[in-house]
Amino acid sequence: MGGLTEAKLRVLAGERSFGRGLGYVDEVSGVEFGDGWIRASVHGTERYETELVLGGRKGKGPAGTCDCPYGQEGNFCKHLVALGLTVIAQEADLPRLRESVWDRARGLDTWLSALSREELLTLVRDEIAEDQQLERRLELRAASARGDLAGIRFRIRELLDIGPFAQYGYVEYADARAYADQAGQAVSAIRSLTGSGRASDAIALSREAIGLLAGVAESVDDSDGWLGQIGAGLADAHRDACYEATPEPEELAHWLVTHALDEAADLTDIDPLDYEDLLGEQGLIALRRYATEAWTANRTGWAERHLLQRLAKSGRDVDTVIAVHAAAQYGHTHLLIARELDTAGRPAEALEWAERGIRDAEDLATVDTALVDHLTDRYTRTGRLADAVTLRRDHFAARRSLLAYQQLRAAARAAACWPPEREKALALLRTDAERAKGCGGRVLVDVFLDDKDTDAAWRAATEHGAHDGQWLTLADRSRTTRPAGALAVYHRLAAPLTCQTGNHAYEQLVSLLLSIRDCHRHLGTPDDFTTYVTDLRATQKRKRNLMRLMDEHDP
To answer: Which pLDDT does position 59 carry in this prediction?
Structure first.
């Protein structure tokens, strides 16, 4: 059995799915055996088809597939567990069961071979009367055999019609799988045309079928992605037929571009460049020409832009890529163009586009920060350190953020001009703080903290205000130098926490208590801390988790 055991099933499925699979063992039916695989149906919310591959992939142990939603995501589901447990329970009977399956197959073949022509015809007619799907499959084969293109087209339209499955014009989730099973027969019919030497007809019908499928897609609940599988099948059938029939390159190029810009492209995921060998040089030129014409007619269309850029990049046509980017007029357009030119080995042009992005901006605060970073890096690498500082200075003046300050500092230090640049930057922040502009005071505090200038940060916080996080950082850094000030901060932050519940609040409060104790130690007033903690314990004694934390840390 390929080493199949309950322990391996538990590992493959996980405890949750393994436990659920135990309840589905009695729902396993129709077990079939093959060379290294076992299949069965498992009845749950619906009937699911499962398959265990006993050797696993590359001989690495058991694996399996199931068409339930969880199994389709690549998981070893409860239905596979149920099949595996069934197989394990029947281990002793497996050789006999396998032989029984093969005996039945041989017996059926022997019986069919012994029937006369009339008996076979009667049997097939009886089965057709009982099974409409079989009837349709045979009708397709018959139409293909007699070269009845109109008949095949009619049957394919029937197969893709949602009418028999739709209530009020919509195929619900529960019926989507059945519709997809029927639609999948259209793929088989088109492939059979290619196999019978009629690849040109297969090309035409696959294109029609793709259009029909796209036309009903909005009317099907395709939560499980069945239509995508049918679309991919039609795409493969179209490509195989093209390789067999070798259509005229210009016509193929036109269809590929038209399809790529159609909504049906989402179903098939056809990549025009997959046809590169068939198109040849002439076809590729036509492909790019049609894509260019489509983009010229609709420069704002995402599909048109994406297609032309992809084709231009494949042909190393950097100028076309740049033209498409330039027409888009997005905030990061200049950066994208600069990167494309850098990659193409055209650094001077790349630099010009990056600089143009800065020049064209009405407000440097709205410019993509990545463009500023890119241009600063180019200036630095080419030794233009003063230009890098100027750019960072202007960006900081527009942004007034801690990050912009840090970036200015890095550039100015590299250019050995940080002290004067720092004074200019601090002057801007002080002006903002004095005018109460935005969060100028808080940015000023952050800047001083980042510069490790705690005294200046404390003064800024006192004069212009700071948020609690900044005050906590200031207190933590100042416990030894200004314990009284830090103590006042800790007491203020602790007060609201005494009115809160929950472990997070308790942990914050105990952390503050440890800091308060440290301040009292530096002040030489440990008795005051003892009194504070004693009173706190008395008022908070009902909070058992808080008392436990205080006992553990002994503040």
So the answer is: 45
CA 41 to CA 24: how far, in whole Å? 11
Contacts of residue 240, defined as CB under 8 A and 6 or more positions apart, other chains included, come to 191, 194, 202
φ, ψ of residue 50 to 5 degrees: the values are -120, 155
Q: Are 427 and 421 in contact (CB under 8 A)?
A: no
What local confidence, expressed as pLDDT, does residue 369 receive?
92
Asked whether the beta carbons of 91 and 75 are under 8 A apart, the reply is: no
Question: Do 133 and 178 contact (CB within 8 A), yes or no?
Answer: no
Across residues 368-373, what is the average pLDDT?
92
H or E stretch covering 505: helix 503-523
* Res 444: pLDDT: 94
pLDDT value of position 131: 73
Q: Position 477: which residue type? A: R
CA 97 to chain centre: 45
- Coil/strand/helix, residue 39: strand
At residue 67, what are phi and psi to the nearest 5 degrees? -90, 15
* pLDDT tens figures, 232-285: 999 999 999 999 999 999 999 999 999 999 988 999 999 999 999 999 999 999
Q: Looking at residue 185, what is its pLDDT?
A: 86
Q: What is the largest CA-CA distance in the chain?
A: 113
**Pair 98, 14: CB distance under 8 Å:** no
- φ and ψ of 302, to 5 deg: -65, -45
Which residues have C-beta within 8 Å of that of residue 253, sequence separation ≥ 6? Answer: 272, 279, 283, 284, 286, 287, 290
- Helices 149-159 and 173-195 meet at what angle, rounded to 10? 160
The one-letter amino acid at 214: A
Cβ atoms of 184 and 135 closer than 8 Å: no
Average pLDDT over residues 497-507: 94
Q: What angle do CA 296, 298, 302 make, to 5 degrees?
A: 115
For residue 225, give the 3-state DSSP assignment.
coil
